[in-house]
Amino acid sequence: MSDSKPVNIIGDDVKKDFSNAEIVKRYVQYRPSPPSSIISTVLHFLTQQQQQQQHGQQQHEHEVKDIKGEEGSSLCVDVGCGSGQNTHLYADHFKHVVGVDVSVDQLDAARVTNTRTNVSYRQGRGEDLPLQDESVDLVTCSSSLHWFNIPAFFNEVKRVLRPGGVLACYWYRLPECHYGSHSFNDVVEEVWESWREYWPPCHQFIMKDDVHLPHLYPDQVTVRLSEKKFVLERACSLDDFVGFLHSTAVFQNLELDKGTQQAQHSLQALRQRLVSKMGRGNETDKVILKYYYALRMWRKPSH
Ligand SMILES: C[S@@+](CC[C@H](N)C(=O)[O-])C[C@H]1O[C@@H](n2cnc3c(N)ncnc32)[C@H](O)[C@@H]1O
Q: Is Magnesium one of the keywords (predicted)?
Protein backbone atom coordinates (compact mmCIF):
# COMPACT_ATOMS: atom_id res chain seq x y z
CA MET A 1 0.00 0.00 0.00
CA SER A 2 2.91 2.34 0.67
CA ASP A 3 4.08 1.87 -2.93
CA SER A 4 2.87 4.99 -4.72
CA LYS A 5 3.63 3.80 -8.27
CA PRO A 6 0.46 4.28 -10.29
CA VAL A 7 -1.37 1.14 -11.32
CA ASN A 8 -3.05 0.97 -14.67
CA ILE A 9 -5.17 -2.12 -14.86
CA ILE A 10 -6.89 -1.48 -18.17
CA GLY A 11 -6.70 -4.36 -20.57
CA ASP A 12 -5.61 -6.97 -18.06
CA ASP A 13 -6.52 -10.45 -19.06
CA VAL A 14 -7.88 -11.85 -15.84
CA LYS A 15 -8.99 -15.25 -14.70
CA LYS A 16 -12.61 -15.07 -13.56
CA ASP A 17 -13.50 -18.37 -12.04
CA PHE A 18 -16.19 -17.33 -9.60
CA SER A 19 -18.64 -19.96 -10.85
CA ASN A 20 -17.69 -22.90 -8.78
CA ALA A 21 -19.98 -24.14 -6.03
CA GLU A 22 -17.11 -24.50 -3.55
CA ILE A 23 -15.91 -20.94 -4.13
CA VAL A 24 -19.43 -19.55 -3.88
CA LYS A 25 -19.80 -21.33 -0.52
CA ARG A 26 -16.60 -19.66 0.72
CA TYR A 27 -17.89 -16.30 -0.50
CA VAL A 28 -21.17 -16.63 1.37
CA GLN A 29 -19.39 -17.70 4.53
CA TYR A 30 -16.35 -15.44 4.64
CA ARG A 31 -16.76 -12.33 2.46
CA PRO A 32 -17.65 -9.16 4.37
CA SER A 33 -20.37 -6.61 3.60
CA PRO A 34 -19.06 -3.04 3.27
CA PRO A 35 -19.26 -0.74 6.33
CA SER A 36 -22.32 1.49 6.74
CA SER A 37 -20.05 4.57 6.57
CA ILE A 38 -19.46 3.87 2.86
CA ILE A 39 -23.15 3.35 2.12
CA SER A 40 -24.12 6.62 3.84
CA THR A 41 -21.32 8.51 2.05
CA VAL A 42 -22.54 7.20 -1.32
CA LEU A 43 -26.18 8.02 -0.55
CA HIS A 44 -25.22 11.46 0.64
CA PHE A 45 -23.31 12.18 -2.59
CA LEU A 46 -26.30 10.97 -4.62
CA THR A 47 -29.05 12.74 -2.70
CA GLN A 48 -27.14 15.98 -2.11
CA GLN A 49 -27.53 17.10 -5.69
CA GLN A 50 -31.07 15.80 -6.03
CA GLN A 51 -32.07 17.84 -2.99
CA GLN A 52 -30.33 20.93 -4.31
CA GLN A 53 -32.11 20.60 -7.63
CA GLN A 54 -35.49 20.01 -6.06
CA HIS A 55 -35.33 22.64 -3.33
CA GLY A 56 -32.62 24.99 -4.53
CA GLN A 57 -30.81 24.64 -1.21
CA GLN A 58 -27.85 22.93 0.37
CA GLN A 59 -28.55 19.73 2.25
CA HIS A 60 -27.10 19.29 5.70
CA GLU A 61 -23.84 17.40 5.39
CA HIS A 62 -24.79 14.37 7.48
CA GLU A 63 -28.38 14.10 6.42
CA VAL A 64 -29.03 11.06 4.25
CA LYS A 65 -32.37 11.12 2.46
CA ASP A 66 -33.93 8.08 0.90
CA ILE A 67 -34.80 8.55 -2.70
CA LYS A 68 -37.48 5.87 -2.56
CA GLY A 69 -40.32 8.30 -2.05
CA GLU A 70 -39.30 10.70 -4.80
CA GLU A 71 -41.01 10.85 -8.16
CA GLY A 72 -40.74 7.88 -10.54
CA SER A 73 -39.17 4.60 -9.55
CA SER A 74 -35.71 4.79 -8.07
CA LEU A 75 -33.28 2.08 -9.09
CA CYS A 76 -29.91 0.97 -7.70
CA VAL A 77 -27.88 -1.61 -9.60
CA ASP A 78 -25.02 -3.51 -7.96
CA VAL A 79 -22.68 -4.83 -10.66
CA GLY A 80 -20.46 -7.82 -9.88
CA CYS A 81 -22.78 -8.41 -6.92
CA GLY A 82 -21.40 -11.89 -6.14
CA SER A 83 -23.58 -13.53 -3.51
CA GLY A 84 -25.17 -10.18 -2.59
CA GLN A 85 -22.83 -8.95 0.19
CA ASN A 86 -23.38 -5.32 -0.86
CA THR A 87 -26.68 -5.44 -2.78
CA HIS A 88 -29.09 -5.76 0.13
CA LEU A 89 -27.58 -2.76 1.95
CA TYR A 90 -29.40 -0.46 -0.48
CA ALA A 91 -32.84 -2.08 -0.06
CA ASP A 92 -34.07 0.53 2.44
CA HIS A 93 -33.11 3.43 0.20
CA PHE A 94 -34.47 2.55 -3.25
CA LYS A 95 -37.70 1.28 -4.70
CA HIS A 96 -35.78 -1.40 -6.59
CA VAL A 97 -32.33 -2.85 -6.19
CA VAL A 98 -30.93 -5.20 -8.83
CA GLY A 99 -27.77 -7.27 -8.43
CA VAL A 100 -26.00 -8.18 -11.69
CA ASP A 101 -23.26 -10.79 -12.02
CA VAL A 102 -21.83 -13.06 -14.72
CA SER A 103 -21.82 -16.05 -12.41
CA VAL A 104 -25.03 -18.08 -12.20
CA ASP A 105 -23.76 -19.87 -9.08
CA GLN A 106 -23.09 -16.59 -7.27
CA LEU A 107 -26.56 -15.33 -8.23
CA ASP A 108 -28.22 -18.53 -7.01
CA ALA A 109 -26.52 -18.06 -3.63
CA ALA A 110 -27.61 -14.40 -3.56
CA ARG A 111 -31.23 -15.40 -4.20
CA VAL A 112 -31.15 -17.98 -1.39
CA THR A 113 -30.01 -15.44 1.18
CA ASN A 114 -32.18 -12.57 -0.10
CA THR A 115 -34.96 -11.59 2.29
CA ARG A 116 -36.04 -8.32 0.61
CA THR A 117 -38.93 -8.14 -1.82
CA ASN A 118 -37.51 -5.09 -3.64
CA VAL A 119 -34.15 -6.80 -4.31
CA SER A 120 -33.75 -9.02 -7.37
CA TYR A 121 -30.87 -10.59 -9.28
CA ARG A 122 -30.07 -10.84 -12.99
CA GLN A 123 -27.31 -12.46 -14.93
CA GLY A 124 -25.27 -10.05 -17.02
CA ARG A 125 -21.88 -8.53 -17.67
CA GLY A 126 -20.68 -5.16 -16.52
CA GLU A 127 -19.64 -4.51 -20.12
CA ASP A 128 -23.15 -5.29 -21.45
CA LEU A 129 -25.67 -4.44 -18.76
CA PRO A 130 -29.21 -5.87 -19.04
CA LEU A 131 -30.71 -2.44 -18.35
CA GLN A 132 -32.46 0.33 -20.30
CA ASP A 133 -30.87 3.62 -21.25
CA GLU A 134 -31.00 6.32 -18.53
CA SER A 135 -32.90 4.06 -16.13
CA VAL A 136 -30.57 3.87 -13.11
CA ASP A 137 -29.99 6.33 -10.23
CA LEU A 138 -27.05 4.56 -8.62
CA VAL A 139 -24.61 1.96 -9.97
CA THR A 140 -22.42 0.32 -7.32
CA CYS A 141 -19.39 -1.95 -7.62
CA SER A 142 -18.27 -3.54 -4.38
CA SER A 143 -14.87 -5.20 -4.84
CA SER A 144 -15.76 -5.93 -8.46
CA LEU A 145 -14.58 -3.06 -10.67
CA HIS A 146 -11.10 -4.54 -11.06
CA TRP A 147 -12.57 -7.65 -12.72
CA PHE A 148 -14.23 -5.69 -15.53
CA ASN A 149 -13.01 -4.31 -18.83
CA ILE A 150 -13.20 -0.82 -17.36
CA PRO A 151 -13.50 1.32 -20.54
CA ALA A 152 -16.34 -0.91 -21.78
CA PHE A 153 -18.00 -0.85 -18.36
CA PHE A 154 -17.74 2.97 -18.16
CA ASN A 155 -19.47 3.21 -21.57
CA GLU A 156 -22.31 1.12 -20.20
CA VAL A 157 -22.49 3.28 -17.07
CA LYS A 158 -22.81 6.39 -19.29
CA ARG A 159 -25.66 4.70 -21.14
CA VAL A 160 -27.69 3.41 -18.17
CA LEU A 161 -27.30 6.26 -15.65
CA ARG A 162 -29.99 8.91 -15.47
CA PRO A 163 -28.78 12.50 -15.60
CA GLY A 164 -27.51 13.29 -12.08
CA GLY A 165 -27.01 9.56 -11.41
CA VAL A 166 -23.92 8.21 -9.64
CA LEU A 167 -21.40 5.41 -10.12
CA ALA A 168 -19.82 4.38 -6.79
CA CYS A 169 -16.98 1.85 -6.67
CA TYR A 170 -15.31 0.66 -3.50
CA TRP A 171 -12.98 -2.12 -2.58
CA TYR A 172 -10.80 -3.34 0.28
CA ARG A 173 -7.29 -4.59 0.54
CA LEU A 174 -6.09 -7.70 2.37
CA PRO A 175 -7.37 -7.10 5.93
CA GLU A 176 -5.16 -6.33 8.90
CA CYS A 177 -5.30 -8.98 11.59
CA HIS A 178 -4.80 -8.27 15.33
CA TYR A 179 -4.94 -10.34 18.46
CA GLY A 180 -5.01 -8.19 21.60
CA SER A 181 -1.90 -6.05 21.37
CA HIS A 182 -0.27 -8.43 18.85
CA SER A 183 -0.35 -7.60 15.18
CA PHE A 184 -0.27 -10.51 12.73
CA ASN A 185 0.20 -8.20 9.76
CA ASP A 186 3.89 -8.87 9.22
CA VAL A 187 3.36 -12.64 8.92
CA VAL A 188 0.25 -12.31 6.77
CA GLU A 189 1.88 -9.76 4.44
CA GLU A 190 4.99 -11.92 4.15
CA VAL A 191 2.97 -14.98 3.13
CA TRP A 192 0.78 -12.94 0.77
CA GLU A 193 3.89 -11.51 -0.86
CA SER A 194 5.34 -15.02 -1.23
CA TRP A 195 2.21 -15.88 -3.25
CA ARG A 196 2.76 -12.93 -5.59
CA GLU A 197 3.11 -15.12 -8.67
CA TYR A 198 -0.49 -16.21 -8.05
CA TRP A 199 -1.91 -12.71 -7.85
CA PRO A 200 -4.23 -12.17 -10.85
CA PRO A 201 -3.01 -9.07 -12.75
CA CYS A 202 -6.02 -7.07 -11.59
CA HIS A 203 -5.11 -7.85 -7.97
CA GLN A 204 -2.60 -4.96 -8.20
CA PHE A 205 -5.61 -2.71 -8.26
CA ILE A 206 -6.74 -3.57 -4.75
CA MET A 207 -3.26 -3.81 -3.22
CA LYS A 208 -2.01 -0.35 -4.23
CA ASP A 209 -3.03 3.12 -3.27
CA ASP A 210 -2.81 5.03 -6.53
CA VAL A 211 -5.21 3.58 -9.09
CA HIS A 212 -5.46 5.25 -12.49
CA LEU A 213 -8.87 4.99 -14.12
CA PRO A 214 -10.19 6.41 -17.41
CA HIS A 215 -12.00 9.74 -17.24
CA LEU A 216 -15.73 9.34 -16.58
CA TYR A 217 -17.26 12.60 -15.26
CA PRO A 218 -15.62 15.70 -13.74
CA ASP A 219 -17.82 15.68 -10.61
CA GLN A 220 -16.06 12.96 -8.65
CA VAL A 221 -14.83 11.87 -5.23
CA THR A 222 -11.68 9.88 -4.41
CA VAL A 223 -10.90 8.33 -1.03
CA ARG A 224 -7.67 6.35 -1.04
CA LEU A 225 -6.96 3.26 1.02
CA SER A 226 -4.14 5.07 2.81
CA GLU A 227 -6.58 7.66 4.21
CA LYS A 228 -8.05 4.85 6.32
CA LYS A 229 -11.36 6.70 6.27
CA PHE A 230 -13.57 3.65 5.84
CA VAL A 231 -12.91 0.60 7.95
CA LEU A 232 -14.88 -2.52 8.66
CA GLU A 233 -13.87 -4.20 11.91
CA ARG A 234 -14.85 -7.80 12.54
CA ALA A 235 -14.17 -10.03 15.51
CA CYS A 236 -13.84 -13.57 14.25
CA SER A 237 -11.97 -16.80 14.78
CA LEU A 238 -8.60 -17.56 13.25
CA ASP A 239 -10.39 -20.17 11.15
CA ASP A 240 -12.70 -17.47 9.75
CA PHE A 241 -9.64 -15.45 8.76
CA VAL A 242 -8.07 -18.48 7.11
CA GLY A 243 -11.45 -19.08 5.43
CA PHE A 244 -11.34 -15.56 4.01
CA LEU A 245 -7.87 -16.19 2.53
CA HIS A 246 -9.18 -19.48 1.20
CA SER A 247 -11.93 -17.57 -0.69
CA THR A 248 -9.50 -15.34 -2.63
CA ALA A 249 -8.61 -15.62 -6.32
CA VAL A 250 -4.95 -15.73 -5.19
CA PHE A 251 -5.56 -18.95 -3.30
CA GLN A 252 -7.52 -20.40 -6.22
CA ASN A 253 -4.53 -19.81 -8.48
CA LEU A 254 -2.17 -21.36 -5.93
CA GLU A 255 -4.48 -24.38 -5.70
CA LEU A 256 -4.62 -24.74 -9.49
CA ASP A 257 -0.86 -24.69 -9.71
CA LYS A 258 0.18 -26.72 -6.68
CA GLY A 259 -2.88 -28.92 -6.19
CA THR A 260 -5.33 -28.86 -3.30
CA GLN A 261 -3.17 -30.73 -0.81
CA GLN A 262 -0.11 -28.52 -1.11
CA ALA A 263 -2.18 -25.33 -1.23
CA GLN A 264 -4.02 -26.38 1.93
CA HIS A 265 -0.68 -27.13 3.54
CA SER A 266 0.49 -23.55 2.84
CA LEU A 267 -2.68 -22.17 4.41
CA GLN A 268 -2.35 -24.39 7.49
CA ALA A 269 1.32 -23.44 7.83
CA LEU A 270 0.26 -19.78 7.94
CA ARG A 271 -2.42 -20.61 10.51
CA GLN A 272 0.17 -22.42 12.65
CA ARG A 273 2.51 -19.41 12.58
CA LEU A 274 -0.35 -17.21 13.75
CA VAL A 275 -1.27 -19.66 16.53
CA SER A 276 2.31 -19.56 17.79
CA LYS A 277 2.15 -15.74 17.80
CA MET A 278 -0.85 -15.94 20.11
CA GLY A 279 1.53 -16.82 22.94
CA ARG A 280 -0.53 -18.11 25.83
CA GLY A 281 -3.76 -17.43 23.99
CA ASN A 282 -6.09 -20.11 22.79
CA GLU A 283 -6.43 -20.72 19.08
CA THR A 284 -10.21 -20.47 19.41
CA ASP A 285 -9.93 -16.89 20.75
CA LYS A 286 -11.28 -14.10 18.59
CA VAL A 287 -8.99 -12.04 16.39
CA ILE A 288 -9.87 -8.61 15.00
CA LEU A 289 -9.87 -8.11 11.25
CA LYS A 290 -9.71 -4.58 9.85
CA TYR A 291 -10.73 -4.12 6.24
CA TYR A 292 -9.81 -0.68 4.91
CA TYR A 293 -11.77 0.53 1.90
CA ALA A 294 -11.02 2.86 -1.00
CA LEU A 295 -13.87 4.71 -2.71
CA ARG A 296 -14.29 6.32 -6.15
CA MET A 297 -17.54 8.03 -7.17
CA TRP A 298 -18.64 9.99 -10.22
CA ARG A 299 -21.81 11.92 -10.96
CA LYS A 300 -23.27 12.15 -14.44
CA PRO A 301 -24.02 15.78 -15.35
CA SER A 302 -27.68 16.75 -15.07
CA HIS A 303 -27.92 18.37 -18.50
C1 LIG B 1 -14.58 -10.22 -5.77
S2 LIG B 1 -16.25 -10.60 -6.22
C3 LIG B 1 -17.17 -9.32 -5.37
C4 LIG B 1 -18.48 -9.81 -4.86
C5 LIG B 1 -19.30 -8.85 -4.00
N6 LIG B 1 -19.71 -7.68 -4.76
C7 LIG B 1 -18.57 -8.41 -2.75
O8 LIG B 1 -18.76 -7.25 -2.34
O9 LIG B 1 -17.86 -9.24 -2.13
C10 LIG B 1 -16.31 -10.13 -7.92
C11 LIG B 1 -17.62 -10.53 -8.59
O12 LIG B 1 -17.60 -9.95 -9.90
C13 LIG B 1 -18.18 -10.87 -10.82
N14 LIG B 1 -17.67 -10.54 -12.17
C15 LIG B 1 -16.43 -10.73 -12.68
N16 LIG B 1 -16.35 -10.23 -13.92
C17 LIG B 1 -17.58 -9.71 -14.20
C18 LIG B 1 -18.14 -9.02 -15.33
N19 LIG B 1 -17.40 -8.79 -16.42
N20 LIG B 1 -19.42 -8.61 -15.27
C21 LIG B 1 -20.18 -8.85 -14.16
N22 LIG B 1 -19.70 -9.48 -13.07
C23 LIG B 1 -18.43 -9.91 -13.08
C24 LIG B 1 -17.73 -12.24 -10.31
O25 LIG B 1 -18.55 -13.28 -10.78
C26 LIG B 1 -17.78 -12.03 -8.80
O27 LIG B 1 -19.03 -12.45 -8.28
A: no
How far is the C-alpha of 235 from the C-alpha of 290, rounded, in Å?
9
- List, for residues 167-194, the tens digit of each pLDDT value: 999 999 999 999 998 899 999 999 999 9
Q: For residue range 38-90, list pLDDT tens digits in order.
A: 999 999 999 986 655 555 544 443 344 455 544 446 999 999 999 999 999 99
Domain ranges in the chain are 7-299
CATH hierarchy code of domain 7-299 = 3.40.50.150
Burial of 185 (0-12, 13-18, 19+ CB in 10 A): middle
The answer to whether the pTM exceeds 0.90 is: no
Measured in degrees and rounded to the nearest 5, phi and psi for residue 58 equal -75, 135
Separation of 229 CA from ligand 1 center, angstroms? Answer: 24
Nearest CA to ligand 1 atom 14: 80
Between CA 79 and CA 90, with CA 85 as vertex, the angle to 5 degrees is 70
